[in-house]
Predict the 3D structure of the following.
Amino acid sequence: MLPRPNFLPGLLLAAIALPAAACWLDLDRLGAGLPSAAAGGGSNVGSSTTSGTGGGGPGSLVLECDPCPEGGCAPVPVAEGPAFALGAADLVAASDGVYWVNQEGGEVMRFVSGAEAPEALTTAVAPRCLVVRDGNVFYGDDEGLWSCAADACTETRQKVTSSVAQGTIGRVAYDGASVYWTDRGAAESDGRVYGCAPGDCATPKEYATGLFRPDTILASGGQLFWVQFGNGNANGAIYQGSSGGSATTVASALAFPSSVAVDNDSFYFPSWHLGGAVQRCPKGGYCSEPSAIKPAEAGDKPFDVAVSGGRVYWSDTEGGTIRSCPAAGCGADAPRVHTSGRTGLTRFALGKACIFWVDATNGGSVMKVGR
């Protein structure tokens, strides 16, 4: 089980496919201390309540933000409160809007541009992760991996595969042809990586076995990258594979690498512990000496990472911030601060104009700020 983040009470690039998606957060810990009121589900989403807001009102252009190139701008809510974001755990900035999963509320949600309010696409059993592409939604929950059409999710929902054990799906990626996912397995070193064509997944292809808590996975440029989170004994690692099945270790002996992002030349990863660094390695072989994007600082605990437009962004769960540096590193300059004081901050995603993130505190929220 992942080390307990002290703020929790109780990819395009990795930015868009997740961290995207793509997602394991512990349900018991995430739900502990949150309001006990059930999420509104389909009956409450879009209604006027005092416990939550859709943020933006009728005609809201969810994907739009005022430019904020130097950081420090005020965040804007996309969705707030138990009716919309109870235990928000992962999110995606897609072409038509923002999608997220409510782990405690048991919903797959979205807010599309021009809509009056967020809507629940379907219910799920403690959903943890998702990826959205070309109108297709894939999400992982306690029971396994599921798929649906975004515009008719409940009607088209089907189970892609079961998880190895209850709640062991890690994160998920989709390249338009195949879906890939990590599974932590039934024991500490029983993690696996799988892939299949969504309509032909009776026997998924096995890309890796015997992993220590695999988590983030992404598909980029015909290649797969995934994270072995490890157990703190310097056994975290980053792997690179192909859709054909071959895989190799590209970085190892890492301390809790919790996410990975890639661009044309490099891959990037944080170390999720106090004093952890955000680092870069060149693609194309084993990386024995990662370069620091920003120096390790005692009060930092970097968790999620994304790269876009020549900048590397990361969330710091200890300080509740999202910061960024040029892809080559900040050098002597301080990182740019995009948001701060977010006590339940975990995953985030980059849109063309906005940075979006989920926060599990105070009934949960999905927020945004201009890039």
Summary: The CA atoms of residues 323 and 337 lie 4 Å apart. The mean pLDDT is 86. The first helix runs from residue 14 to 17.
